[in-house]
Structures are given as C-alpha cells and as structure tokens.
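Tutorial handout. Part one gives the primary structure; part two gives the three-dimensional structure as tokens.
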Amino acid sequence: MKKKILIIVSNANAIGPNNRRTGTFLPEVAHPYADFDKAGFQIDFASLTGETPYLDGLDLAGDPDNLKFLTGDGWAEMQKATKLSNVDTTVYDAVFTPGGLAPMVDMPEHQTLKKVLAETYERGAVVGAVCHGPVSLLNVKLSNGKYLVDGKNITSFTTEEESMYAIADVPFDLQTELSKQGAIFHAETAWSAHSIADGNLVTGQNPESARGVGEKIVALLNQEN
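Part two.
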C-alpha cells in the first residue's frame, strides 16, 4: 500500500517588529517533496488556517527540484492545503513541517498542531521537521506529561545561524527553547547539511539539511514495507 505523508505548513507571511516578509522557505519543502515523490508516496498538504500559504526563497527557483516544485504539482497542491483541524491525520505514515521564518509566528503555541504531533509520534508514525520547522515540536506534550523533545537527539536552525540571519525578527531563539524542554541538541558547522533520526523523529538544521531529512523519512517508511 502506498505510504501517505502530510506536509504541514505555516500561514504566516510577516514576522517581527519590521514586518519582515516570510513564508515557507522553498527548498525546505521542495527538496523533501522531491524525495517523497520519487519514493511514490501520496503527498498531501495541510496549513494551520486553511488559507493560501506563502513561499519564501523564490530567488532559488534555478535549483532543479525547486523549479519542479513551482511548476509541477507541488506548489499547486500546497496552495490548496486543507485546514489542519479538518484533516484526519491518523491515516498518515508521516507528518513533516518545513521551515522558513513563518512557523516561528504561528506554530509555537498552536494547540491543534501540538495535539496532532503528539498523537502522530505516539502511534509510531514518523514526525519530521527542518530548520525553523522544529518550532512545531516546541510545547508538544506526550500522554505521560513529558515534552516530546525531552531526551531526544534533535537539531534545528542554530543560535549561531540565527545570529547571522534573523535575530532581530524572531520572537525567541529556537535552539535555546528546544534545549530548555530537554532536547539533546546537536549543532554542526553553520550552514552545513546536518540531519538526525532518533527513532521516528527526524530533524534537520538548515535549508541545506532538507534533502537529508526527506531521505531519512523515506528510509524509515521503507523499513516498514
């Protein structure tokens, strides 16, 4: 049976005191999408509000997978993303949250998202996120009362990288907050490709890590065949 993956995206398009324009960062959704598509998975999109989401990083459209996403089915399907609260997430073998600065706006406290991620993780399905996408994991509590990230080996956009990118725009430092909730945080050299799988939890550090996250999710799901 074909594996099913749900990509959950932000609906934010601005962040910070200067209303910096943002959205889902193109390669962070396009590169994993290419991996999932090549693997033959059914790929669906959900957004937090059900409104049309936004893309950032369109200047990177020269990359083959980015261009294929924009001109093929990927972006067309993402624009029609279903409201997360209306999705039966129990039918999915994996859920994945791409980054961009947008998730830092609407994902830290979104209760439906937190519930979906806790339930997905606890039933043994794969939970993945890259760059700022792991903000979706923040404040997720499992049925035992512990934070999902507590004791897990994870990564995300790092304090060092944020200092070079958007420190004036983000509401908090993601590496710091994940570590406060018990995450065993692994930071590699800034801007290098770095992804981690800890059981059924897969995370990546930055845009260069998106393909590795996609590949690790595919590998985990293919193990179940």
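Part three, for discussion. The two ends are 9 Å apart (CA to CA). Residues 4-223 form a domain with the Rossmann fold fold (CATH 3.40.50.880).
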